[in-house]
Amino acid sequence: MAKANAFYAQSGGVTAVINATACGVIETARKNRDTIAKVYAGRNGILGALNEELIDTSKEGTKAIAGLRQTPSGAFGSCRYKLKSVEENAREYNRLIDVFKAHNIRYFFYNGGGDSQDTANKVAQLSASKGYEMQCIGVPKTVDNDLPFTDCCPGFGSVAKYVAISTREAALDVASMCETSTKIFVLEVMGRHAGWIAAAAGLAQEQKGDAPHIILLPEVPFQQAKFIRKVKESVKDCGYCVIVVSEGAQYKDGTFLADSGAGKDAFGHTQLGGVAPMIAELIKSKTGYKYHWAVADYLQRAARHIASATDVEQAYALGKAAVEFAVAGKTAVMPTIVRTSDKPYRWKIGEAKLSRVANVERKMPKNFISSDGFGITASARRYLAPLIAGEDYPSYRDGLPQYVRLKNELVKKRLPAKW
Amino acid sequence: MAKANAFYAQSGGVTAVINATACGVIETARKNRDTIAKVYAGRNGILGALNEELIDTSKEGTKAIAGLRQTPSGAFGSCRYKLKSVEENAREYNRLIDVFKAHNIRYFFYNGGGDSQDTANKVAQLSASKGYEMQCIGVPKTVDNDLPFTDCCPGFGSVAKYVAISTREAALDVASMCETSTKIFVLEVMGRHAGWIAAAAGLAQEQKGDAPHIILLPEVPFQQAKFIRKVKESVKDCGYCVIVVSEGAQYKDGTFLADSGAGKDAFGHTQLGGVAPMIAELIKSKTGYKYHWAVADYLQRAARHIASATDVEQAYALGKAAVEFAVAGKTAVMPTIVRTSDKPYRWKIGEAKLSRVANVERKMPKNFISSDGFGITASARRYLAPLIAGEDYPSYRDGLPQYVRLKNELVKKRLPAKW
Description:
The structure is a homodimer. Chain A is 34% helix and 17% strand. Chain A has helices at residues 18-31, 46-50, 62-67, 90-102, 114-129, 156-177, 196-200, 224-238, 275-287, 298-302, 309-327, 354-357, 378-384; strands spanning 4-10, 36-42, 54-56, 105-112, 135-140, 184-189, 214-216, 241-246, 291-295, 333-341, 346-353, 396-397, 400-401. Chain A has a five-stranded mixed sheet, with helices on both faces. In chain A, strands 7-8-6-9 form a four-stranded parallel sheet, with helices on both faces. The longest helix of chain A is centred in the middle third of the chain and has 22 residues, at 156-177. At the A-B interface, helix 6, helix 9, strand 9, helix 10 and strand 13 of A face helix 6, helix 9, strand 9, helix 10 and strand 13 of B.
């Protein structure tokens, strides 16, 4: 294929390492200048393509692009915007192709979760059907770790590490005060549909009796009486009880615990998050134990300061592989992580067809959850442990991590703003 | 003075570096074996002395004691227990002296905040009045940074660093998504009576427009209309608004925002913490902006993984100085941090009389708060910046920090259990 430009976009919730993937994409594209002229990044994801707001990454110096590897969040802006099916909204797809044509873009890299892989696949189909030659590559990303065909998803390992470390640290705090003060600590973590992140807290446990004593997963329907019994048992045996609860923890009927009453605020709105205070109050009302709770929210997925080195390395490698796939003439595929060994941990890059990835959600296997439903199994530990291995510290100045600021200069528009 | 044993106790809320102080105390005592025979640590603070539960730290190896320097929380247990005045509860003081006599303890190191310094002072007075020769040294510790006569308090610098980094990271997350998603992020941090911790979030701001856009301090009475105006202004100018709120944020009449209605849960209890969701909902109801909020709670004061190197160094140095003071025959004093230069930052160990330290609370100076009440001044930055400087990473195994586990063997009791 003749030399042409590439489009790269970040999609959905950002992570501590999605910019490491961007770094992999851009650095590898720069090494393939005979094939890829420039990388244009979408301002705020796919919206940047629709609005013809293309960031010219060639304006950024080598150091700035390298700095992406240690910078959390989405450096070009991301968005929550799902394209409908081609039938429902051909207009948007046609606009994408128009913008790509206008800027001689023949490489499309879409960095996101399941929805994004679906979009990338549709763009691939459409461009083919229109006879516009374009390589469409999906690049995996999601803290939810729910993409199929890849052993794990970039972003997840770093959240997992943050949650495991935070659990270990807060538990030590509670343990040292529990005789005369707080006995209960509840940490709320992300995971609306799957308990991968909450499960990772289980890695904090090194010996019997260590925290977390209870993990509440969306996969295991919440049973109040059983839960309270377990809390009392932990306090009796260990002196305290640390609970890690997934924001998606739910009753048997699918109602989220966070929506079940205690999570309503004075205005009558359902609170966003808020399952931690609900659980804490439930325990207080049933046992009288003094509690503390924390809601990590964005802190967990933005915590680049304690990112997993494995995660950073894989995020970069997937960006690099995406470009190499494109240069090799592939399309409608997504590079994946293939695990070849647990211990020592070994992995390589694999490949999945976008048509198969799109809209498939990977749940946590049943054999990862302990028989009482409150913990993780040895299999889960074997899977999770390597993903948090290694520390990849950013550089610091004056005690604060130095996260890169890009110029983000837009390319001159060539199309009418209205479409 | 003849060779005798020492008693060391941790008091009140623990920190990321109180064990670094313990490390300084024990390692320095071991270097002064001709004066200090053994260091006994109170199991759960001063309760360990009252209950004659004395941990024999001589049973711990060199490596374990060194490991304390990188381990958060209180390794011997802490407690929230304030001794009353000698008049009100002579029984407790007499018991302390009895236990100290029974174990030939003539050095008393009390590691805590204002109340603990007061207790150490009373024990000094009482032992003197009873003719029991004992050196009583207070050792400062508190994330609240509210002790007088010391430039700062061990524990604060690390919380400050955690809060500044978390604010910077979460803000990048919000910034990259704000065009189509969350525009408001509220982070709740500790500080019931003083805004030192919330103020430290201001260090995250490097350039105009950077987060945090608003800091809510207990020192500045909350004015709803003014606050909402500032939120709207930030969203207009920057696209988003990051707010860091002190748990002690309050109205003019002293009512905590957290207690003002929105913080009540379904059970009618006042929630512990919970000012973040209250602020978030207030903004939503007045502006319609989508929000996220986080409550760091224990995560912030236990976050040894990102402790300030300055803080760790000072925590250790104060423990070391405490022992050196005792060995030099001093009593009823507390080692302090004396700042001799802002830039480059230089400090040395000073000394304060416990009688002057006790029960004095240091507030944030007025000139640290910006004129609109929502930020910090250049003076505040000059004071705060050095305290978060440097990273003191713990060692890791399998992706998790290796925090030490002590044996904590108790000394054989010599007194009747009932007193």
